[in-house]
Amino acid sequence: MSRKYTQFAGDKEKVLLDALADKDSSIDSYRQSMYQLGESLAGAVLSQIVSNSSSAHLACTAEDADFLAKGILSRLDGTLAKVTFSCFWNKRFKPFGIADLQVAPILKRYLEPSDAQVDSLIIAKSIISGACVVRTNLIDTIARISPKQIFIVAPVIYQGAEDRLKKGFSEDIYNKFRYVYLAEDDVKTPEGIIVPGIGGEVYVRLVFDSQDDKNRSTPELVKQRRLAISQRQLV
């Protein structure tokens, strides 16, 4: 087993990644580590965005909204001129039980009003392995939004994830990809869990009973932003 760190992973980020991988980490520690990693990843993204007058759209999965994505937004909001957000509830499964065939259809979406064109699209995921969730959400997003550059953001990826994601898009799209991640792992258990990864299934670590339980829940971040938008519309 070998973990490769990227140039974005400093001593602080390595400690936070270790907290995720540690199965004895408390729920609060795990959540706070995800939030702080989101802040760090946002800092790395901002270092590659030319101007504070830029616009950005952040898209994430429901399980990542309240911690990883919230940490990212904490840095983007107030720094960039305009930031919008979308959240996806995906159901990932293997049709006919075929391990190499994974799909992640979108069950529902939370979409904030966004310009048709944005400077930067940021797709965030706690860990990227087969890339089917990221691919699905990216395809859905670029059907509505045309970005100048696309940041694929995660604390951890599994080796080969970049190539797997690239295969799903035309050259004019994948040439916009900018990968921002902290560590790459190369070991996967027969159950499909990346080691050390993020310490197992993110649903369980965040105290959801299952993927279905996660899909029945609405992240607090979505509730807060939806309420803020409705209140602005009433003014």
Any overview of this molecule?
By secondary structure, the chain is an alpha/beta fold. The chain has one domain: Rossmann fold (3-Layer(aba) Sandwich). The protein has nine helices and ten strands. The strands form two sheets. Strands 1, 2, 3, 4, 5, 6, 7 and 8 form an eight-stranded mixed sheet that branches. A two-stranded antiparallel sheet has the order 9-10. α3 links the parallel β2 and β3. α1 runs antiparallel to α2 and α2 packs across α3. The protein is globular, with a radius of gyration of 17 Å. The protein starts with a strand and ends with a helix.
Count up the helices. 9
Q: Kindly give the count of domains.
A: 1
What does the overall shape look like? globular
Main β-sheet, in a few words? Answer: 8 strands, mixed
Query: Which runs of at least 5 residues are low in confidence (pLDDT < 50)?
Result: none
Q: Radius of gyration in whole Å, from Cα?
A: 17 Å
* Secondary structural class: alpha/beta
Task: Kindly report the CATH topology.
Answer: Rossmann fold
What is the mean pLDDT? 91
CATH class: Alpha Beta
The N- and C-terminal alpha carbons lie at a distance of 56 Å
User: Beta-strand percentage?
Assistant: 25-35%
